[in-house]
Amino acid sequence: MTGRISIIGLGPGNILQLTPQATQVLAQVTDLVGYGPYVQRVEAPASVIRHSSDNREELARARHALEMAQAGRHVGVVSGGDAGVFGMASAVFEAVQSGPPEWRRLDIEVIPGVSAVLAAAARLGAPLGGDFCVISLSDNLKPWPLVLRRLQLAAQAEFVIALYNPRSKARPWQLAEALKYVQQYAPLKAPVAFARAIGRPDEAVRLSTLAEANAEWADMSTLVLIGCAASHLIERPNAQPWFYTSRKVEAV
Amino acid sequence: MTGRISIIGLGPGNILQLTPQATQVLAQVTDLVGYGPYVQRVEAPASVIRHSSDNREELARARHALEMAQAGRHVGVVSGGDAGVFGMASAVFEAVQSGPPEWRRLDIEVIPGVSAVLAAAARLGAPLGGDFCVISLSDNLKPWPLVLRRLQLAAQAEFVIALYNPRSKARPWQLAEALKYVQQYAPLKAPVAFARAIGRPDEAVRLSTLAEANAEWADMSTLVLIGCAASHLIERPNAQPWFYTSRKVEAV
């Protein structure tokens, strides 16, 4: 019997943003593996075994999934948003690369999902209308000076910058330093959005500018979007402004 | 009567990757607006009026949608993938900003979708496992020197680089120049993927390295993914290698 791994993006959290492909595959798995809140989110028959683990246990969790697949199970490895964007997909392939050769024979598929950055952008207007980049502000897996260097180069490239993992209890200071750093390289009047838990009942949006953005407005469920020179806020009567980035950049 | 605009991402093309939210909204619209192939792709009741237009007509198309919404229609503006990523969302808000004040009172919503880059990444493994950027190689709306500058800075930032619109009949030379340019700043052995029409019946994948990638392998339906120093190909028996990027970057 040959096992299988399906790495599944669950989308932002609203069931209407979970793809039918993900729903179909979730109905076939024998086991679910992932960070607790994501595993709990899945509706599955009672026969499905749920293996929840803590955050930051990605590699151990991936190896566990691969061992179960090798034993013939069909393991669903779940992430919020899209599993390929700071989710479990990379951890699974990292485990394969460093694991026994048999794991390379396993049937591993990745089912894409609506990522947090796409959901946040849709909620705000069209902030990703031009070229953009996506950076995790966590320095658990890369040195902080590299994060700063990437922020500088991204701002110099006039990318819109989407920041994942901007702030947590264990990493309270990075976002304030990052914002201050980007202020040196991007326009101070560029719009900045704090998009929290988009697609979930407790969603919240706060708009500001790079000059005035306050890191205290973010928590671990927030995505921060920093605009560029081509980004605009469109004021509206009795409603939050729309945040969009022009597709067009004039020659200077 | 107040009109409404729903800007909808149709996903990569496979109906199983269209979100239930998009399906629900598509069932409510009175009119569909978009580039011909996307408008034709939508299953809709006969009463829905389809307004197809050519590529590169985004702004005129957006204004037409806004005029119809102002006249009380519920207009679905459709894009492939996610409408916020080189799709129609930015054009609609650009039209709002430069249009009559009444347009700011319209109910405009954006329904996110699975973008082409997420679908391509899922098909390949986990190439977006670290920080990444997304660049349109088209110089219809921005100067070519800016595209090259962004490529340079992105490579120096060690981002994985996803290229939309790499090549068309009207723009046959940009990709070859871009690849040659990036070779100066990114590792020559970095994996490069040409992912064509992912999620559609004619999908095709070609893997190479930055040193050997050939622009002739791309057409207007191709997404090109250029890896970084943290990207790897995992060889497999009797199957295409997996392309993934490590989440971890060591301090140098």
TrEMBL record, chains A, B:
One of its GO terms (molecular function) is methyltransferase activity. The keyword Flavoprotein does not apply. Gene3D superfamilies: Cobalt-precorrin-4 Transmethylase, Domain 1, Methyltransferase, Cobalt-precorrin-4 Transmethylase, Domain 2. SUPFAM superfamilies: Tetrapyrrole methylase. Keywords: Cobalamin biosynthesis, Methyltransferase, S-adenosyl-L-methionine, Transferase. It comes from the Bacteria. Pathway: Cofactor biosynthesis; adenosylcobalamin biosynthesis. InterPro entries: 4pyrrol_Mease, 4pyrrol_Methylase_sf, 4pyrrole_Mease_sub1, 4pyrrole_Mease_sub2, Cbl_synth_CobJ/CibH_dom, Precorrin_MeTrfase. Pfam families: TP_methylase. CDD domains: Precorrin_3B_C17_MT. The keyword Membrane does not apply. Residues 5-213 form the Tetrapyrrole methylase domain. GO terms for biological process: cobalamin biosynthetic process; methylation. NCBIfam families: cobJ_cbiH. PANTHER family: COBALT-FACTOR III C(17)-METHYLTRANSFERASE-RELATED. This is Precorrin-3B C(17)-methyltransferase. The lineage of its organism: Bacteria, Pseudomonadati, Pseudomonadota, Alphaproteobacteria, Acetobacterales.
